[in-house]
Amino acid sequence: MIPELGILRRHGKQYIPDITAPKVPGPFKGRPEISTAAVDEAALADLCPTGAIGKKPVTIDLGKCVMCGACSFAFPEKIKFTSDYKIATNSRDRLIVSEGSSDPIMLDESKIRSEIRSLFGRSLKLREISAGGGNADEGELNACGNPNFDMGRFGIEFLASPRHTDGIVITGPITKNMAAATQICYDAVPSPKLIILAGTDAISGGIFAGSPALDRSFLGRYPVDLYVPGNPPHPLTFVNGVLSLVRKMKG
Ligand code: SF4
């Protein structure tokens, strides 16, 4: 017992005490801010590999943005990416950031189904479906349960069997080969159930959008409860997004 206590003391606290507040170091790209500076908007939009940049006014669709940084490198006076990782929302429109705005991205409370908070606020079990994902999104979702982010302390966990879960988290652009499996997995989850899209590929198809190898018809059949942008999404984006969906958060 004494040696174990010594190990605990040496290791210190591994988890982030307040998951809503840590600062993200390094070159992380979160919510973009677009200035009102005049630039060649056509040239700006043309350099985006996924068509995420709109014109008049200039906008960035975080559901399409793969965070390559090309726009902010070429037009630093126009676009900068902040370290604000709270960019998940339940409204597809709210993923579109307009020039001149520095507003945080939040959930639309009016769109949250009443049963979500009453049933899942303290316990939410999820099944992850990698529907043609490249392992980056999946790796970050795995990290959500590690000793740092430790989403298990909020009752949020990934489980293997969809029959024991409350919803699905889709990563990847949903390839034809995964379309039927996605439907089967969703059908196996008991109602009421959630659908969460994690990562740009799942939200819009990302760089694969429009490919004949995709079958995204599943998304046309059901409402999406949460969009978690990022390429891949940061664990703080996912955990804070899910918490905002299932619990009433302060601020
Ligand atoms: S960072 Fe996003 S918006 Fe900018 S060029 Fe890359 S994909 Fe397009």
CATH topology of the domain at 109-246: Rossmann fold
Quaternary structure state of the chains depicted: single chain
- Element pattern in H and E: HEHEEHEEHEHEEHEHEH
List segments where confidence is low: pLDDT < 50 over at least 5 consecutive residues: none
Shape label: globular
Q: How many strand units? A: 10
Q: Beta fraction of the residues?
A: 5-15%
Structural class: alpha/beta
Mean of residue pLDDT values: 96
The main sheet orders its strands as: 7-6-8-9-10
Rg = 19 Å
Ligands, deduplicated: iron/sulfur cluster
The CATH class name of the domain at 109-246 reads Alpha Beta
Q: What is the straight-line distance between the termini?
A: 42 Å
CATH structural architecture of the domain at 109-246: 3-Layer(aba) Sandwich
Number of helices: 8
Q: How helix-rich are the residues, as a percent range?
A: 25-40%
The gist of it:
The chain has 251 residues and is an alpha/beta fold. 26% of the residues lie in helices and 15% in strands.
List keywords for this structure.
251 residues, five-stranded parallel β-sheet, alpha/beta, binds iron/sulfur cluster, Rossmann fold, three-stranded antiparallel β-sheet
